[in-house]
Design a protein that fits this description.
Length: 355
Amino acid sequence: MNLPRRAPLHGPDPRTVVSLGCCLGFEPTREVGGSVLSLRLENAYLPRADVLWSRRLTQSQAEAVAAVTNATASRLRELPVVGVEIEGTTPSTKAMAADVANIAALGTLVGLLVVSEAGERGIYRRAARTIRTLRRSFGDLTVLPVEASWLDDLASRTWSSQLAPIPSPALRTPAGGETLEWSSSTRSYLRELGKRAGFIVAEPYVPDILAIAFESEQGRRASPLVHLYDPLARKSAHMSRTGDYLTASQVDLAWLLPLPSGLHDFLAELANLDPHLREHGMLYPELYRHIAVVGFELDSSDGKHAAGGLLNLSAYCVMGIGVSPTTAGAGALEAILARYRPTLGLRNVRALAHA
């Protein structure tokens, strides 16, 4: 990596961030070109981060991702997981907002914005406030403020680089029209392709964030969450389960990759250093034991049901593939994506016709 020889005026030596990433079991990089994230940014400016912590895909995994994205396997050698921006000076709030936007544009699972109180007292609070403001305006961005002085201690610790275990997901039979012959054969093909490549196949994939967000919101309150249960009778009731609070957002099938268990432990330590990150909904360390590399939604329609599936893919997977039984159907899915991209993103989702 091409890093500065000396540390910035105030803040950590970037080599400390590189060393920490290595200790956690990642390969430090800087470019998204030649990585899975480049698929999300095709025909767009490829942003750079000061440091990326990446997982290297096996050749079989890269070839499997290439097979479903029409990409070249050699372009998919890395999967950046954590993006780090290091501010060693006294940046303006707008400059830090651009740092956060740069990390969000990269599409990493987690982002770290490193600032130094040695350069400016109160900059950590300003960084946290900037992130909260952008989350309010642009959605659930997982970017965390980090005080530079924490990193030397964190880098000196021993972290496990072993991959976190992922319980084998139980296979569940799809409902309704998804049992059609084309859907069944496509599921079988995608299931076997993912397994042969070394991914863990979840069918369906239910993101953990939904239950965790509900439990966290309940835990912050002195009294239970309440919702209007019967609008005609104007009756309210306690929310007793996740499904009362958030809609189940399952993906038909996903290829999962375990992450180094040290990442969970590192993020848990950040949550200890700043316990308000969890309180503000910015960090739930238990989410970071795996990453959904590719998710698939199979749909023979091109209406609102299909559109909802595409939204789930974009929110919960690095790359999402909407699969239709016909070329015309795939074109209709692309039209939905074109309609939503200006306001909701979805650059990480593509549509394919069943082969």
